[in-house]
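USER:
Try writing one entry.

ASSISTANT:
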Amino acid sequence: MTKQVTLAVKELRKTIRGKEIIKGISFELREGEVFGFLGPNGAGKTTTIRMLVGLIRPTSGTVAICGYDLHHRFTEAIRHIGCIVENPEMYPYLTGWENLEHFARMMPEVGEERIMEVTKLVGLEQRIHDRVSTYSLGMRQRLGIAQALLGKPKVLILDEPTNGLDPAGIREMRAFIRFLAETEGLSVLVSSHLLSEIQLMCDRVAIMAKGRLLAVDTVERLLKEQARVVWKADPVDKARALLAEETEVLRANEEIIVTPYEPAKLAAWNTKLIRAGVAVAQIEPRLPTLEDLFIELTGGETID
């Protein structure tokens, strides 16, 4: 069964002082998925996120949240989205519970019962009545997410949710985000500079550079498309010429030949080389990491 689209972005553009910053990007989030949003410095991620949550208006294009157009039906649309940007700002001299009460007063129909629900959801029952100044960074992140969940949103946007956490905290946050998607059915958009975490956490990713989306797909499919095979053969020049008749030779030198990874054809290519008198010493498939893919697509730009 096709899952419901909770966030639909179509041909979104933003021009600032005559310069087009966001150049017609389109993507969708579906119920129960974690969606990674990646890009180097200046790619336009922050500007895009600000448009998604209504902080700035796009020059053109549309943002629809649970079917409501953000521009024309702002109130109905925005009630379905929650957002945390980096380290959430809380009142340190108040308890976690008092902070949530403060934010709940701004929302109709959010009372103590919902505060207790989100407290349990983020696992802060034992510390919710302690002052926030005594919380670890991971606990403050969870409290921030609890605040974002008060209004029962369908879409949760997390900008750098693991920023500043130690390895154990990062692992815990990753598991928690997966729990929100899989158990609670939220659509979670995660912007992060930790590509290894995005690779482990996300169902799909969007890679952005210079205001454009370069790729949107599952991590598995994106990496498979960039998979390579490294050949070691002698004589290498003859092997390169024979392989070039069958596939693209991406790189070659005096020691190795690199071709795309096409597992169904490898055996036939190998047989061709052997029958032509080429000694094949190694056929090594190499699946890139998300970091490798990111660098290749963005031309080596540094991520935020």
